[in-house]
Amino acid sequence: MASSPLKYYQSDDLNAKLMLKTYFSATVDKNILQDAVILPLKLLHKVFSTENIRGNILIDLTAGPIIYQLLPACALFKEIIILDCNDPCVEELKKWVNKDTDAHDWTFAAQIAAEEGDASGSYQDIEAMVRRKVKCIEKCDLAKENPTSPRELPKADCILSVRMLDAVCEDKNAYRRDLRHMSSLLKVRGHLILIADIHSSFFIVGEDKYQLLDYDENFLQETLNDEGYLVKAFIPIESEGSSDLYELKKSILVVAQKQ
Asked: What's the pLDDT score for residue 207?
């Protein structure tokens, strides 16, 4: 049973290995794996296969030490920059990129990516491409006007973000602020690909319960419009089932272009 009070992804340490074991291992409950990896991965593959989204730099801003979202995108960009707001997750991501012996095994996700028809070849080829193209993994703070201060990053052609704003924003004003700061990393006419949870309020890792921001689809649509995005796709991802580990009604995959 998770302890209280709620913890916060951006400020409290998180057991990154336990998070991976709980949500992102091939052996977890099939409904959890569908929600956490399989459905989002297949939909991202479809988006990257059908939309003209490519370029020099992809910035990934995703909550948790996860890499599956990069598998369908890696062939379309020359460089990948990974940013995260949680220190243990940053270290766990570095372990996978560096092929440390205790790094998480993402073979099952890479196999799905290969089966979905990626032209990059076998699952081993796809994993190797991601590792080769990742140029840096750094901690960031979306509450800052420059999230990577004092470092100035080159503007990205695409930002890919899975549930990061859900995890780090304590209220809707913070969501608007952090989206604006995230957008400062993106070129004009660049694309934001966002996976967001609708009406979720928590997820559990071990004994710890972490806050997620509860909001609806209208808020998400209006906020993107207010921040100068043209929303090109707004695709619901229905949850496969319920779990005591998280609250999830459904997720949304958004493809938006910065104007």
From this structure: 94
